[in-house]
Sequence to fold (454 residues):
Amino acid sequence: MTTTPPLIEDLARKFSTKLLLKHELNLSEHRFQYLIDQNYLQEVDGIRSTLNFHECNRCFNKNQSLFGKIPQHARAPITYCKKCIQMGRVSTKESLYRWTGTHPMRHKVMNPLKWKGILTPLQEKASQKMVEAVNNQSKLLIYAVCGAGKTEMLYAGIQEAIKQNKRVCVATPRADVVRELAPRLRRDFPTIHSSALYGGSTERDQNNHLVIATTHQLLRYENSFDLMIVDEVDAFPYHRDKTLPKAVTRASKPNSTQIYLTATPRRSHKLQIATKQIPTVSIPSRYHGHPIPTPTFQAVLRLNDKLEKGVLPPKITQWIKEKQTTNRRFLLFAPTIQLAEKLAEKLNMPYVHAESPDREYLIKQFRARAFQSLITTTILERGVTFPSIDVAVIQADHHVFDEAALIQIAGRAGRSASDPTGDVTFFYEYKTNAMIQARNYTILKNKEAKRCNI
Ligand SMILES: [Zn+2]
Fold:
């Protein structure tokens, strides 16, 4: 027989607690058939269909307009899900496969955490609450301002889970955040097995201790994680796409611990906090104890017209010149790819947006101080940390800059303990509520932090 027990163990590590397409299994036809015949693999319908109603078993899509038909099968058409097509096609003829063999073991690691830093008293409080949540298999929301040092607050909880041989997932809606978090977690937990999963990553999870993934990647999992940490829970697309919270729930084991992190809770979480539906720990202070920079408002007459015509108003050029002459590094946020491109051309600066092919490279280069400034759309609004930078938002009154986005953008400045202040400037034509709320948030959090005597 070709399928020996060590091989079964190997396959279990690859497939256990996942829902995968046949091509993702990457097996020879002979081996695939053997695993089906021996009940190691169970076939699950890709699409659940009744009369004219379809539901995708991978991404939970029920929106009928997001199902397509394959035309060459007009008499008995094949229905496929458009919503999750980027992860490979699921259809009425393309099933998912679940591992039903025994689940693989992981080796125990008793002291995986090698980080030797010291937490502030507020960080310590959140850290202890998280350890309790891990032990009680309960939920916790950590409401911490940008720059509070959220990642380090998670370390004791992750360590506790790994010591108990639990499987941990740190999920986030944004791939850039996965790329930022993964090296830090690997540096501080060097002896455990981990994988970083996002669209385009080449790493594979083989029942590792720790998975760092975009929330989209969790659509390939079920009953997999004992500790599920969702970072940036208010970020796009997680807060808009109702299927992603379902993916998080399905990827978690029934008795799992759920930790949610946010600096800018959306209305639903604010309501849960206010009505005490979810235990919450609030951290209004940055780890270095200095206040969050308050945004400066700079009104520019006919800003939108000028930008449309490719004219940069003097207030903006002066701001840039001042940074260049004082050798301050800075990020310029633009609301659209078109404006980012225009600014880049005019100012002769690099720029990044969601579809930039060299985005990862440019972010790395900026981090390595290869250039002084970077133009970006909202893709760099959160989750990425560059020490000692100033920030300007061009057209801060544009609708893409909602309250949360502006708070997050302002939160990029003053992150470093050795340079804790920073300039945050909003250039706008018409003042918006989002701008006012973002400034009020900063003032309120700084007051709260002061009351905590930090
Ligand atoms: Zn789907």
User: Anything to note?
Assistant: The longest helix spans residues 433-451. The first strand starts at residue 19 and ends at 21.
